[in-house]
Amino acid sequence: MTRPQHFGWFLARGFGPQGWGYPALDWDYDWTRPEIYQEAARTLEQAGFDLVIIEDAPSMGSPETIDIRVRHAFGGPKHDPLLLAPYLFQATKHLGVVPTVNPAASLPYTSARQFATLQHLSANRLGLNVVTDTGSARHFSDAAQLGHDEAYDRAEEWLDSIRSLWRSWDDGALVRDRATDVFADGTNMRRVQHRGTHFAFDGPLNALPFADGEPAIVSPGGSGRGLGFAGANSDVQLALAPLHEASVRAYRSKIHDAAVAAGRRPEDIKILFAIQPVITSSAEEADRIVAASAHPDDAALVQIARKQSSDLETDLTSLDLDKPLDLAIFGPHVSRGSIQRLVGDRGEDAPLRAHLTALVRAGRFSDRTGFVGTAEEFADVIEELGEWGNDGVLLWGDFHPVSLHRTLDELVPVLRRRGILRREYADGGLQANLQAF
Ligand SMILES: Cc1cc2nc3c(=O)[nH]c(=O)nc-3n(C[C@H](O)[C@H](O)[C@H](O)COP(=O)(O)O)c2cc1C
To answer: Where in the numbering of this chain does the Luciferase-like domain appear (predicted)?
Structure first.
């Protein structure tokens, strides 16, 4: 039976020059100004999306690889998405806005106060995509960079700290009684004296408590520790996993088990699978795109090598395409998961050309080999995910009206007709929308 699902948009290159290198996006586009993002946010709201998540990294990466990352604007520059959020709230009424935040980059008290301010300003529409990348540590102190699991420990301490500050006004602390001229009762506020492993501070928080729920917590980590963090703490998990039934069900159960172990209900967390679709106007067009991608020329491979070089902080563009890729070129700073995604199961003798070709090759929705196809075919995939219990889908792309309209114009009416996409919003902000079904 068809079930409604939640839809999000992942602004995958963050608040940066995402049109760079894509001539088709070269119209009325100034990435440093709010207008283009506001227009896109309105489009998503008209489409019935619950939220937009804005990717971020506070750093341009290791000193040795900055040029690789900025030369084609893949890895930077990026402006702070928390400061873009108010402009998107102002342009919309229901859309949740979720900037990415890294506990390495801000102290709990400052963050709790900033997030509380935005939650009030937006009428409960703030979310926070909590990430644990440690590569930017050198910008914030000279302390040693944390390991993978320690970064999750710090993220949990940071989030617990923020929540204890948000809850530092007990019931009855906010009085607002004009007759007695009492605004608040300071004797009903908790002092919150936190002395932890990573943070030490006192409360209470100098911001109003929430009457209608806290900002939504979103998380993207896919390791065992990451899924455990999501189950214990998150309202939304961004899921990157193969979209076949066993994989989808296994991913969901791991998070649900972690939620139950932490005393929560499985339905407290919505799991959104990330997909980057290419929607075509006909099956023939989709077939042509897939066929054209089967044998990419060297120019196409260099283009994908540039992006990979930025993501992997390792220059692949100067390597011989026809020689085996020596994995020793990747330093210890490079994510093992990202290397694995590049090399797949092709073996150590496979030339770089084979790895890059696999990334360029597209497949069809219709036979479940990829993400190219018509709106109806994509809706079939989403409907099937729903039959396996899925909560929703996160469409992955830039935030330019051209890309949004290409993806959504035919898809939204199809999803609505099938009852998969909401027609109206709950009255109460992001958490209320997430919990509406
Ligand atoms: C869909 C998705 C979105 C992500 N967005 C960001 C991001 O905006 N900023 C960031 O620093 N890391 C981002 N990450 C990386 C995660 O925060 C995390 O560092 C990474 O997945 C490693 O954690 P893990 O080992 O638990 O998977 C993202 C990961 C996924 C799957």
So the answer is: 37-389
